[in-house]
Amino acid sequence: MNDGGTSKVQDALTVDSLLDLGRSLFPPNLVDACIFQYRTRLVPNASEPDKYKLAIETQKMDGTNILGLLVASVAIGVAILHLKQEAEPVADFFRALMAIAMKITTWVVRLSPIGVMFLVAHEVIKMEDLGTVIGSLGKYFGTVVVGLAIHGFLVLPTIYFLLTRKNPYTFIGQMSEAITTAFGTASSSATLPVTIRCLEDNVGVDKRIARFALPIGSVINLDGTALYEAVAAVFIAQMRDVDLNVGKLIVITITATAAAIGAAGIPQAGAVTMIMILNTLGLPATDISLIIGVDWLLDRCRTAVNVMGDSFGAAIVAHRSQKELARTTETRRTSRSNARKISVLGQAQIFVDT
């Protein structure tokens, strides 16, 4: 933790970042969870004169706490399920709210091609010398893009085909709107409504699966980010002439996976969690500046792969759960039918008694 100079705030260790996931499950309130995330930081200890001793402190960060909202949503959903008719107005309210959100998303998505063009143009204009940046980082950039392409268009489709026996590339075409939106926004959380709509309307995935699996996937299934962080860590280590043996490569793999799980679904969140991996290798956090020049474009590529991974996963779960979903639907239909019969009989009995 010694930076050789004045004390300053540092990112926490890997174990603290993993524990942050557990803490995020139970936010202090729902409004807070909609606005802030909590992350552990190492800060100078005011009670210790030794400047190299740092204290652990939890700080608020801008961003939606998806895990906390998900836990609260599941709890509310289970309560509504148990209350049945009593909570039906609340269930209708949430259904209407979801329909409104999807309709607004549809309007916004119609303008997304123009928005994507200006977002990318803005990032290109900010670069002082695009040719020099691409030239110096060409091999690194190419390695990440090829790796993401292999994972997104070969590995994931193969897994999907083996488990569902369906054409994966037809599926990718059906999800193209969500993938394009992910590339433009560089945020899996911002793309979530579009991903849900494509999966339900274009693919035909049951909304119970899509609306449960996709929010979870947008938080913990960031496979594109994990791949990017592993390659970036190896590249930076090679630039600093750090010898990477098998043990260190395994550590990079594990840490990159853990860091990706803890990354927020916001633009360039992977660059923030990269600091965890650099700390593990004993490299200064400032070394991230070696790759930041092209990170804006790689961020869009890995976000698109993240969304593809979430979509493939939800579709596989839906395919493997067809019988259970049909059984649940039939049970629910029977219960509602019996409830209506009981209600009619009750009203008839009241009429006879009067």
Automatic annotation (TrEMBL):
Keywords: Membrane, Symport, Transmembrane, Transmembrane helix, Transport. GO terms for molecular function: glutamate:sodium symporter activity; L-glutamate transmembrane transporter activity; neutral L-amino acid transmembrane transporter activity. The chain crosses the membrane at residues 66-84, 96-120, 140-163, 249-266, 272-298. The keyword Transferase does not apply. It is found in: Membrane. Its main location: membrane. It is a multi-pass membrane protein. GO terms for cellular component: plasma membrane. Pfam families: SDF. PANTHER family: AMINO ACID TRANSPORTER, SODIUM/DICARBOXYLATE SYMPORTER-RELATED. Belongs to the dicarboxylate/amino acid:cation symporter (DAACS) (TC 2.A.23) family. This is Amino acid transporter. It comes from Acanthoscelides obtectus (Bean weevil).
